[in-house]
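Protein Record: Sequence and Backbone Structure Tokens
======================================================

Structure line: whole-number tokens from a learned vocabulary of local backbone shapes, matched to residues.

Purpose: to set a sequence beside its fold so the mapping can be learned.

___
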Amino acid sequence: MRSSLFIFISLILLWVSRRPLRNFRSHGFYRFFAFEGVLALVLINHPYWFDEPFTLRQLLSWTLLICSVVFVIHGVHLLRIVGGRDDRNDMPENLAFENTVKLVRVGLYRFIRHPMYASLLLLAWGTFLKNPAPLTVALAAATTLFLVVAAKVEEQENLRFFGDQYQDYCHRSKMFIPFVF
């Protein structure tokens, strides 16, 4: 059942990512593999979601998962209301909401440049904590690597589009975790 669900959801992700997957220089190329890692983690660890609910590991897991939801909702909201949107011929692989025309530096974006990637990072490690095992360690680490690469590639895209303004923003903010990384 889990294998079938993995294949079904992967096919949806493939369809959504069909344009970025044709261009390994696009951040969406690497983001696809991060999504696949998160999907695998969720499907592998879903049987343990509510085991031993009050252990430190589970409480930390739920904290990361809740933060993940907050990060993605807040990040998408700010992109929509502050970043604006327009068609960008320089990045035809982008999904529509990614084509912001203004640099967002308020809310969570004041502290980190990639709240939505941070959300996936928190989701991956929160899911990993449900039942740590060698396979899930490898999946969480690989997902983290793909997210870092996706963020680095996206930063190069943003530098080309926003110029010095983005360079200054990079010096004032962290990549994923406020005040840390």
